[in-house]
Amino acid sequence: MSLRLSTVILPVDRWHAGGRAKWLRAEELGFHAAYTYDHLSWRSFRDGPWFGALPTLTAAATATERLRLGTLVTSPNFRHPVTLAKELISLDDVSGGRITLGIGAGGNGFDATALGQEAWTPKERADRFGEFVPLLDRLLTEGSVSQQGTFYSAEEARNIPGCVQRPRLSFAVAATGPRGLKLAARYGQAWVTTGDPKLYETGTPEQSVEALRGQVRRLGNACAEIGRDVAELDKILLHGFTPDRNRPLESVDAFVDFAGRHQELGFTEIVIHWPIPDSDFAADKAVFEQIATEAVAQLG
């Protein structure tokens, strides 16, 4: 399968002061999809502008025509399946069926405590994620859902007429652990990873490739357990969190080398960050656009 190239646009610009222009340019450059982070605030951007993911995607849906749109990623940290499902069905309708829901278990960032709760342990996050995804799947595929869960419940929740995409919009499940990979195998149309975070500071690109090879293998095992062909899932790598850092965005050749090594592992889509000056995602805009327009053709 040929490799697809996508971008992630952080929601840091006012819509009419640069935000809209980025999404339009992403479509012009020919990206397969443009995603945004679904956080209340995030890392070094906490004290600056940061807008909501779903309203931003709704605006992007009205401004663009062909570009797929989505979250990388939504999590249970501040979402509930019932309200999220209603918003996603509306967003899928506005976009004409161009939405992919990237979804993960969440982490210990600012979202984890913004609603006044204690941050959940890794086990608690996995427990909630294991209940969140199946309920959301039902809410997006059934007209009326009632379910009593330990963490999430629904009582005659109505979601008519459902998604434009059938049976529902695509799930891209972010996971590296055994429970998350099982959810990806059962419910995902795609799987998302950022690599092994333990290697980011002191690992090598070669070690990262081997770690990703292991993740792909474990995904295959999770699919085999339920009789699913792992080839049915798209495999998405969100760039910027491996030991390579931003070096693959220094030239077209550097990116083609990076992308080719990961394509060989089975990845079908690589997502690169839209450049943001004076941040971890700083990059030469001209080179970024050259990568967008030239790199995929070199990969075959």
Multimer state: single chain
Mean of all residue-level pLDDT scores: 96
- Described by the principal axes of the CA atoms, the overall outline is globular
Determine the number of helices (DSSP H or I, runs of at least 4 residues). 8
Q: What would the keywords be for this entry?
A:
8-stranded parallel barrel; single chain; two-stranded antiparallel ribbon; globular; alpha/beta; 300 residues; 10 strands
Summarize the structure.
With 300 residues, the protein is of the alpha/beta class.
SSE order and pairing:
Layout: E1 4-8, H1 19-28, E2 33-36, H2 53-63, E3 68-74, H3 81-95, E4 99-103, H4 122-141, E5 144-147, E6 154-158, E7 170-174, H5 178-187, E8 190-193, H6 205-225, E9 234-238, H7 252-263, E10 269-273, H8 285-299
Parallel strand pairs: 1-2, 1-10, 2-3, 3-4, 4-7, 7-8, 8-9, 9-10
Antiparallel strand pairs: 5-6
